[in-house]
Amino acid sequence: MRIAIVVQRYGLDVHGGAEAHARVWAERLAARHHVEVLTTCARDYLTWADFYPAGRAAINGVQVQRFPVDAPRDIEAFNTFGHIVFGGPHTEEQELEWMRQQGPYSSELYAAISAQSDDFDLFIFMTYLYCTTFFGLPLVREKAVLVPTAHDEPPIYLRIFKQLFTAPRYIIYNTPSERSMLHRLFPIAHIPGREVGVGVDIVPSAQPNYEADPPTLLFIGRVHPSKGCDQLYEDFVRYRKATAGDQQPLLKLVFAGRADMTLPEHPDVEMLG
């Protein structure tokens, strides 16, 4: 089978949940199928500025096609416009403009998807939230598989996403709860789909280089307000103050992942990076 995976960024040095998801699938599927990744030249998810050269490359045995972004994102202007869209009444045209500004918008990528529509049996679109899926999937809807990686977050309630979620031929969910949420929000019960994981590589046991003492609350992932890390920190500090005099084991909060925000220092909070 010939499979195209469409994702907003791709590379060994790209950090992101959907991007990692795409790379794991691409590398594992490539063992039995012809797999190509169609993506942009961006590495930074804030600006979407072109970083990688346009054209073809091979990464861990997977063929990758990169296309330039039409224009980098002005993150301050985007955030300001987001207050309009999510702060009160707005039009569907404003939602579409928000999506265009959300990015990464690549005219050459969409042209390539259309031009290569007969070259692949399936087009797998990773994550609902970006232009690569929103504008790319409808071009090949009869061959499109949507992997939403959706959360209960403000964008999922935008009206424009009804047209996206009702377009694919198949939907792959990460969890039953994601499936239930999306079936509640969109009329997609008739679209075939199922929950699919990515698999786990079993590695030999090794001595841990970090010992959790006292008991530890561990966050793994990118440390950023959009992931709720600021709220987690505030809730933890409030909990520690409320239980300071209790006769119970102390609790630490440990963040493991790239830090894209700064948190105040606290004796019971540790950043591993």
Automatic annotation (TrEMBL):
Molecular function via GO: transferase activity
Keywords: Transferase
Superkingdom of origin organism: Bacteria
Protein name according to UniProt: Glycosyltransferase
The species this protein was found in: uncultured Chloroflexia bacterium
